[in-house]
Amino acid sequence: MKTLALAALLAACLTAWAQPAPEGPPGPPLDAAARTQAARELARQLRERYIFPERVKDIEPKLQAAAAEASDAPALARQLSAVLAEATQDKHLRVDVMPEMPGRAKAEAAEMAESFRYGNYGVTRVERLRGNIGLLELRQFAPVRQAGPVIAAAMTLLANTDALVIDLRRNGGGDPETVALLASYLFDKPTRLIDIRWRAGNRLEQHWTSAKVAGPRYGQRRAVYVLTEHETFSAAEDFAYGMKARHRATVIGETTAGGAHPGDGFRLSPELMVFIPTGRSVDYVDGGNWEGKGVTPDHQVPAAEALTLAQRLAIEQLLPAQKHPMKKGGLERALKALDAPAKP
Predict the structure, then answer these.
(1) By its UniProt entry, which InterPro entries does this protein fall under (predicted)?
(2) What's the CATH number of domain 119-265+277-339, 3.30.70.120, 3.90.226.10, 3.30.1490.20, 3.40.1190.10?
(3) What pLDDT, on the 0 to 100 scale, is given for residue 282?
């Protein structure tokens, strides 16, 4: 388990995985000895912790060459991250500037707690759409202890809808335990989800849905649609992959980013930390995961069109079986509204 003091590094990795470290203003100069030591420590940490040690066994000379070209901590972080990306193609593996300071851990914990609270622990939109279609938008899978009550409240509000859309289009990932918690609302009996194989001890950590949930269980009778985009990442991909593989949800949108290796943050120097994947996600059903290739949607459309298509598919599935005149009329009007041209 990662500590709260390292959560800021994880958040940076989840939200900026596809982008190079920003240039920004230069930092204080780092002498050659400090740069060399940081590169050496990074190579050591990789050999001891990285889930795929064979990919980095000969990487230290490249790290040292990159370090020699950097003048300060931001430049060093960029140079080292570029070497790691080229050698491993691992979208979680990243070096970031995070100066070591007295009392920093406590300050970071408070800052991250406020950040999670301000983001409503990932739940940014809960709505009943036309046709009695539920919508749950999640921007992150926040820590399960804090996210659990908010998800329970959201699922209570959505309990009487006839189909559910879960929007992960801007979700950068988070806590695998929260993935399992949300999935627990969608199954009627305990179901095995995506496991994690950790390098330490070659340990397999199984993830299952919970026998009990705090809110009303949505169950398996009603259709679920998951929306994705190309920046949907990490734990959000875990959810989409697991629901698709278990035929519990229809995935709509764009192929996701392709990051399936969980891990933790480790200090390299007083200026730098690295996020190292120490495990890999693995689906016991097919033995695979989404690393490097992403989750391919069942219906591939631009992200901006995914919600409309999900509504259409849900309504078209519900209409044939609907006998109640009022409900049938509501579905027909909802379908007609989707076909209406957008107002200028």
Answers:
(1) ClpP/crotonase-like_dom_sf (IPR029045), Tail-specific_protease (IPR005151)
(2) 3.90.226.10
(3) 96
